[in-house]
Amino acid sequence: MSEIESRDFIRQIIHDDLESGKHEHIVTRFPPEPNGYLHIGHVMSICLNFGISEETSGWTYLRFDDTNPSRESEEYVAAIERDLCWLGFDWGDRLTHASDYFERLYAAAVTLVEADLAYVDSLSADEIREYRGTLTKPGRNSPHRDRSAEENLNLLERMRNGEFAEGEYLLRAKIDMSSPNMNLRDPALYRIRHVTHQHTGDTWSIYPMYDFAHTMSDAFEGITHSLCTLEFEDHRPLYNWFLDQLKPSHRPRQIEFSRLNLAYAITSKRKLSALVEEGIVEGWNDPRMPTIAGMRRRGYPAAALREFVKRGGVTKKNKLIEMGVLENCMRENLGDESERRMAVLRPLKVVLTNYPDEKVEMMEAMNHPGRPEMGTRELPFSKELWIEQDDFMEDAPRKFFRLKPGGEVRLRFGYIIRCDDVIKNDAGDVVELRCSYDPDTRSGTGSSDRKVKGTIHWVSSEHAVDASVRLYDRLFTEVNPNSAEDFHAVLNAGSLETVSAKLEPSLAELKPETAVQFERLGYFCTDSEEHSVDARVINRIVTLRDSWSKLEKQAMQQQGKT
RNA sequence: UGGGGCGUAGCCAAGCGGUAAGGCAUCGGGUUUUGAUCCCGUGUACCGCAGGUUCGAAUCCUGCCGCCCCAGCCA
Hints:
The chain is an alpha/beta fold. It is 27% helix and 23% strand. It is elongated, with a radius of gyration of 31 Å. It binds one RNA strand through α5, β5, β6, α7 and β11.
């Protein structure tokens, strides 16, 4: 253990800036555009920005980057605030909008025009593209580039007054049409848009572009470090150009980091939005979605999500993080925090032939094997039980130590039973097991130390409560669906399976959004929208680690080869 | 074929001229009334490749290769 925890490159810069006295406080911002729900990629940015200000006793603004009214909405701003709160971050009274600065932004634009650093163009969108040149060919100056400041001012004012149609005029920075950096070829500053803005209503008919609005908003808020993703690296010269020309009293510094990509998941708002609109998932908060709302509904604890992002690190290298890392964070957190319960997902009937017909015993069960302070509960035990179909095998391999004909197994917190008969239907499916129990092996009694290899879970059928349980799997079959030509082609058809499960009676009245472990199966969470005590709906968060299924897979592969 | 980035084990990631941390995964083993947890142990990383500088390079220099981003009046 070294005394100095190694810092990522951004925290190193910030540490140095504090050390050198360049800044007294660190001010960051999280600037989502309210045009969709936040996803796992945003979680990283959120944790970075809010995390850094927390660590340095600075502060962070939540700033809605609402400069494009044609695709933004109130629904999204509400969802973003909700998600941020749930994740555990607090912006206090520092909730702002880029639109809060529209007047100041306009004044800054006027300043640029007056300094002959911006002009009103009247080329069409197509012409502008044509004039811009290509990656390898320089662009050409617009024929309107040399309008007088007076004329530009007049035109800009009339743009603001709504005198022109959309696309008729455009305010552009006057930089360098031959720059090898496309962002410097006279980028657009303001475009005309006759649209009602979700925050400013109809007061504006021109709206600033991202680069201009974002840079100046950072400056207005005294942001010290403006952290963004790699694709904006090319924009930094433009960011700095605005600061150089307009000389605001605060000069923020933009630093870029690589985004977090999760294997088998999509993190593109456009595609996520398509999944919702095409009805491929049930909504932005479908438990299969990598959105914060979806992961929350799935049952992922916020703390586990934060831990996951922390493990990813902060660098400039493109990364694709394995699902297993995410799943492990969930298992670690839930393993410590959640109570254990018994539930049977795919029930198989077991009748204990030597158990008295009407008898019911109450068996004591620990709520958490590692945390006795979490207490115990009682499980009713009776003649007729449900066990998991997977826990019985007629022709079992040597290493299968669950139930098989003539074999013995321990019922967790119950007795050891032996399988005497297998009953099948006409189709040949196993529909019932006739077993006998050993009365001397009751769990917890002194004479219960007889060992059997396997222990399986069960539920008394008379006392069981029903539930609809949804088993989720990855939404895509491709590791990196982001780069697939068409994501529809790599959708996982089996991403959702719903089963009718039997639960132990203590689970009858669970509140929505409660996570528990179903022993030997995984972690599950009652659905926040559809679950009620009358109609239980439960989502599987993640399975337990399962070394048996691993062995099974290996065996299958070997069989396939030989 | 312009510009900007990035390349350390399967996936992340330390390292900042002195002879390759750590996590996850993998594979062994122990404990276990969850095949879970827990506990031990487990890696020949040609540090993208090739040269060079140096007593010494993942770290400095040169060249090359690979991958990502940029031609919205999106962010």
